[in-house]
Write a structure and sequence with these properties.
alpha+beta, 5-stranded antiparallel sheet, 20 strands
Length: 262
């Protein structure tokens, strides 16, 4: 690796040619890196032969190496450039200064780390589910006779509607729908991206989340949200879920959307 004379803010950029390692598993490390341009792959040694398996690919705005920065342990994986790449190194002192000047960065990093952990959990669960010794699922009960089958109710779905533009936003299919604006630094995109209609940028990157619990729905304001979150004109307390239903008016900053059934 060679250091460039270029700077990103107060940080020197580090040039890493394609195919070269940024660091290797087991190396001592005292800094983390942010991808300024290019792509890197995260590699982990597996098996007695020591072959490497790709765990992830990081692109512009992603960060890596934070574990060694935080706990002073050797690198837990190797990182190699997939193409000519520019990195921003962040030392421990720079990291502390960065957090003190902009605490929101810490929240955004924790969210990204949380997503990585959840992804790892899913991979582990998938590996467990695919074990050959896993018992087959129990046999399904015989189908009911046609006369005994109830008539299925008409399925409904909830959407957020922006009256001023006519834009409609569908909720995510899972138990949680994130609401906000895309974050080019971390690369995190909310399930409902308000960027196109929020011309005043009054909503935060990660503004709120909508939780589905059975047939009930709740709205929660995220930590670090600016300009407030409102349900029918009442401001929410950060982190405190408030139950909502079709017909409610939700406001994120200055943006008002209606929760409607379709």
């Amino acid at each position: 690796m060679s250091e460039s004379s270029s700077k990103a803010g107060a940080q020197h950029l580090v040039e890493v040619p394609a195919g070269e390692y940024v660091f290797r598993e087991g190396d001592l490390g005292t800094e983390m890196f942010i991808v300024h341009r290019g792509r890197v792959e995260i590699l982990k040694r597996v098996g007695e032969a020591g072959g490497e398996t790709q765990l992830a690919v990081f692109e512009q705005g992603d960060f890596f190496g934070e574990l060694s920065l935080l706990d002073d342990h050797p690198r837990s994986a190797s990182v190699r450039a997939l193409e000519d790449t520019l990195l921003i190194p962040v030392s421990g002192a720079s990291f502390i200064q960065m957090l003190s000047e902009n605490p929101e960065i810490a929240v955004r990093m924790m969210r990204k780390l949380s997503r990585r952990l959840r992804h790892t959990d899913r991979l582990l669960q998938q590996a467990l589910d695919e074990r050959p010794e896993k018992l087959p699922p129990p046999a399904a009960p015989p189908p009911a006779s046609p006369a005994a089958r109830p008539t299925p109710a008409r399925a409904t779905r909830l959407v957020l509607v922006h009256g001023a533009s006519g834009e409609e936003f569908e909720l995510a299919p899972g138990p949680e729908t994130t609401i906000g604006r895309g974050d080019p630094v971390t690369g995190i995109e909310p399930d409902i991206d308000l960027t196109a209609i929020d011309t005043q940028r009054s909503s935060s990157r990660r503004h709120a989340k909508l939780l589905r619990r059975g047939d009930r729905h709740f709205l929660v304001e995220e930590i670090g949200t600016m300009n407030g979150t409102f349900v029918n004109g009442r401001r929410l307390d950060t982190g405190k879920p408030v139950e909502i239903e079709a017909g409610d008016k939700l406001r994120f900053g200055v943006l008002e959307l209606a929760l409607e059934e379709r």
